[in-house]
Design goal:
The structure holds 2 protein chains of 2 kinds.
Chain A: E1 2-4, E2 17-23, H1 27-36, E3 42-45, H2 54-57, E4 62-64, E5 90-91, H3 96-99, H4 114-117, H5 121-127, H6 140-145, E6 151-154, E7 157-158, H7 164-174, E8 178-182, E9 185-191, E10 198-204, E11 210-220, H8 226-233, E12 257-266, E13 277-282, H9 284-290, E14 295-301, H10 311-322, H11 324-331, E15 344-350, E16 359-366, E17 372-377, H12 382-401, E18 405-409, H13 411-414, E19 460-462, H14 477-494
Helix pairs in contact in A: 1-7, 1-14, 5-14, 10-11
Chain B: H1 6-13, H2 16-21, E1 38-41, E2 44-47
Antiparallel strand pairs in B: 1-2
Classes of the chains: A alpha/beta, B alpha+beta.
Bound molecules: flavin-adenine dinucleotide.
Chain lengths: ~500, ~55
């Protein structure tokens, strides 16, 4: 059943105790509700309505105090379906290597590994409407790349992109065991007197009317920034906020760095290679050898006319661009300028290392529910920069050595101390908000344990990419769905 | 500009005068064998043999 808390007269939660209460009707929250409702009665509390509204979205406003980033009310969506209302649908599971601890990266490694998520791969594909694998397109370019020890061809899957509100709206409306409340803002999480369990959840509608829910188990699934903001704001009983005894809530904020890093000309044998996009990533060996993080390269066709020129002609023009007079006098040929001969652009999507200083904090200014707004202090580490620089330059050498083509690296990346373009010049990030309530082996290195349970609070779980220990380079939603299915399985078994 | 021979052109490319045009030497990257085979021209990562087009 779905009700609207803005239009309800009586208290829908009176005299009820919910087995499971979920805050957030986005990708994680909806996946959990649908997969828990066979066994439990579930309250799904969603801050927005069925449609976008200013009054809900406004609550997402915050301040950027670190690296330049998108306005916080533009990088996520606060209504039923969450950011799946606007996402692009790029999907890929994390790599096995992403879960492993690396000597050269502090705080690296997850308490679980890829094998723990693999059982949920097929179901996640079906939830995300990812078509069955077709025969991989004949892509000679990236197949040849596999000959290198340093880079490999990788695949992405594409969701429709699935809008979770649209896809599961009917099922939730008809589910006897789900009470989904729209315009229901979770504004406090109240613990038992001994602080060991969540007892009640406070919800408010937009008229400011408050309700209390009694819960047996609580799951926070409000998105990668909001999960941390809510835990920090709920500080009436514990001054530093919930699950924050070691000060890690909100810390380790990670994004995927998104930049155009180069342009490529292809050798003649690839002249008729028409793939629009191909993908490559470094091998584990290469990452280890270079002490760098994971990254993905998207190689995108940019110019259909370029194939009329031979590779030799393109090289001549590269040299012409460098010194027109000189080359003209040697080759007796006019410069055409290499820009027009470009075959592909290369974009990077790269991992960010766990970084305590990179954080979602609480600002002094409050929202309409008197909750302190988010302040984002996004910070990079030297290894993030080195990953992009070394990765791209080595990719350039690899394509040249294998006789695939030649890469032109963007100038800013070649400087001694590269300064990444700002959000007005390039994408910068992927709207992927990760690691702010990271999974760890103890409160010393994480906020939740390997089952996504908050350390120290018996019935409090967190879902979404805030629980990632590290982000890899793959877009997060596929992993969010896998982990939500795993959490649902766990609660169905042990709750 | 007077006509140059191919040989003159290449010797110019590899001369010290030219190195500054060729921007920084190809960055201290990996210590992989074969780093010397590459040259960087205006951001292009070329093989030295490309200059013999
Ligand atoms: C433009 C864009 C493009 C993207 N493209 C991709 C892509 O191609 N591939 C990919 O993997 N990912 C992509 N993403 C990211 C993807 O959308 C997120 O990873 C995913 O939606 C996160 O799921 P979630 O359930 O954790 O959070 P959300 O989907 O954001 O859901 C959180 C929900 O919680 C609700 N909520 C918040 N606060 C409260 C509160 N106090 N009380 C009650 N409810 C609350 C919100 O209204 C929202 O419905 C993109 C995102 C954007 C913005």
């Amino acid at each position: 059943m779905i009700i609207d808390l803005n239009n309800i007269k009586s208290d829908p939660f009176q005299n009820k105790v919910f087995d499971i209460c979920i805050c957030g009707g986005g990708v994680a929250g909806i996946t959990l509700a649908v997969n828990l409702s066979k066994q439990f009665n579930v309250a799904l509390l969603e801050a927005g309505g069925f449609e976008y509204s200013e009054e809900s979205q406004e609550v997402y406003k915050g301040r950027i105090i670190g690296r330049e980033y998108y306005p916080l009310e533009e990088t996520r969506m606060r209504f039923f379906g969450g950011s799946s209302n606007v996402w692009a649908g790029f999907c890929r599971p994390l790599d096995y290597y992403d879960f492993e601890p690396k000597k050269y990266v502090e705080y690296s490694g997850w308490p679980i590994n890829r094998n723990d998520l693999d059982p949920y791969l097929e179901k996640a594909k079906s939830i995300l409407d990812i078509p069955d694998d077709k025969e991989a397109p004949k892509d000679q370019f990236t197949h040849l790349l596999n000959k290198s020890a340093d880079f490999k061809k990788i695949d992405f899957w594409f969701s429709k992109p699935t809008n979770f509100g649209e896809k599961f709206g009917n099922e939730i409306t008809n589910a006897e065991n789900i009470l989904c409340c729209l315009n229901a803002n979770v504004t406090d999480i109240i613990l038992s007197e001994d602080l060991s369990r969540v007892k009640k959840i406070k919800v408010q509608n937009y008229a400011g009317k408050s309700y209390m829910l009694n819960v047996k188990t609580f799951i926070l699934a409000a998105g990668g920034i909001e999960n941390a903001r809510i835990m920090l704001n709920c500080n009436r009983q514990i001054k530093e906020g919930l699950g924050n005894s070691t000060g890690l809530v909100g810390r380790f904020f990670a994004e995927h760095l998104h930049y155009a890093v180069g342009e490529l000309i292809l050798e003649d044998r690839f002249r008729n290679c028409n793939e629009i996009r191909t993908y490559a990533a470094p091998s584990e060996r290469f990452m280890q050898k270079e002490n760098i993080l994971n990254l993905g390269l998207r190689i995108i066709r940019c110019n259909q006319n370029s194939s009329q020129y031979s590779f030799k002609m393109k090289i001549k023009n590269i040299l012409c661009e460098w010194s027109p007079d000189l080359v003209e006098s040697v080759f007796s040929s006019k410069c055409r300028y290499a820009d027009q001969l470009m075959d592909r652009v290369v974009r990077i999507i790269s991992e960010q290392a766990p970084n305590f200083s990179s954080a979602v904090l609480c600002d002094a200014e409050v929202d309409k529910f008197k909750m302190r707004r988010a302040a984002l202090d996004w910070t990079l580490s030297p290894i993030d920069v080195r990953t992009i620089k070394n990765g791209v330059i080595h990719f350039g050498k690899t394509v040249a050595s294998l006789g695939l083509g030649r890469l032109k690296v963007v100038q800013w990346l070649l400087s001694e101390d590269p300064k990444f373009p700002g959000i007005r010049e390039d994408e910068t990030g992927g709207n992927h908000h990760m690691c702010t309530t990271r999974m760890g082996t103890s409160p010393k290195n994480g906020v939740v344990d390997s089952n996504q349970k908050v350390f120290g609070i018996g019935n409090f779980y967190v879902a979404g990419s805030s629980v990632f220990s590290t982000g890899g380079h793959a877009n997060p939603t596929f992993t969010i769905v896998q982990m939500s299915l795993r959490l649902a399985d766990y609660l169905n078994k042990y709750n | 500009m007077t006509k140059h021979t191919r040989r003159e052109f290449l010797s110019f490319l590899f001369s010290t005068t030219a190195t500054c045009f060729l921007s920084a030497p190809l960055l201290n990257l990996s210590t992989e064998e074969g780093d010397d085979d590459f040259i960087q021209v205006n951001g292009w990562i070329l093989k030295k043999s490309d200059l013999y087009v």
